[in-house]
Amino acid sequence: MNRLRHLPAGLAAGALVAAMALAVPAATAAQAASGRANVVTALDYNSTGWAYLQVPASTQVAGFAEPGFDDSAWQRGQAGFGTTNGTCSWNNQTNVKTPWAVNTDILVRHWLHLPRDAQAVRIQGTVDNDAQVYFNGHLVQSAKSGKCAAGAIDVVVPATYLDCCNLLAVRGHDYGAAAYLNLRVTYVKPAQAF
């Protein structure tokens, strides 16, 4: 027997909505109610799988930021890159996973996948001293942090640069004393309409 059939229309509709809300997982129901989107981490700080190459500052490596560049001969490592000595709070064995020699440049590359509905793709990080940040071959930020300013790398990638398979490439510059580079990539996943 259908119990909703015996309720006035307004109460029946309310009961139906309440029953549907109970059937939806709590987190999803809260998202739908608030209308807020989720921030998802696509590539986190201290991530593995980076291709990297250390070079003298004056060395040019043509096309290293392009998706078609062959980095198969490069070393593989884990972020953060840097030295374990220095005045920055990050220059320690807990935060530095792969050595980066002072007074050199480091070229790093990492592939990441994003869903089609990813929005507001944001690259954040810290560098000592400077960095050029590329996404799918496009320069998206030149960061001048001086001495390890937290959050000096912070840029939202233009939507026209996005693809499902994406390349994050960075050239970090160090000017002596200590070196450090660590990055993450997040995106906004729109809330699902119910």
Q: Can you put this structure into words, describing what you see?
A:
- The protein is 12% helix and 38% strand.
- It is mainly beta and 194 residues long.
- It has two domains: 32 residues; 152 residues, Galactose-binding domain-like (Jelly Rolls), CATH 2.60.120.
- The strands form two sheets. Strands 1, 4, 5, 7, 10 and 12 form a six-stranded mixed beta sheet that branches. A six-stranded antiparallel beta sheet has the order 3-2-6-11-8-9, with no helix packed on it.
- A hairpin with a 2-residue loop joins strand 8 and strand 9.
- It is globular and about 50 Å long.
- Keywords: Signal.
CATH class of the largest domain: Mainly Beta
Q: Uncertain segments of ≥5 residues (pLDDT<50)? A: 1-34
**Strands, count:** 12
Report the CATH topology name of the largest domain: Jelly Rolls
Major pleated sheet: 6 strands, mixed
Query: Architecture of the largest domain in CATH?
Result: Sandwich
Q: Specify the helix fraction band.
A: 10-25%
How far is the N terminus from the C terminus?
27 Å
Overall spatial form? globular
Q: Average pLDDT across residues?
A: 84
Q: Beta-strand level of the residues, as a percent range? A: 35-45%
Order of helical and strand elements: HHEEEEEEEEEEEE
What's the short story on this structure?
InterPro entries: Galactose-bd-like_sf (IPR008979). By secondary structure, this protein is mostly beta strands.
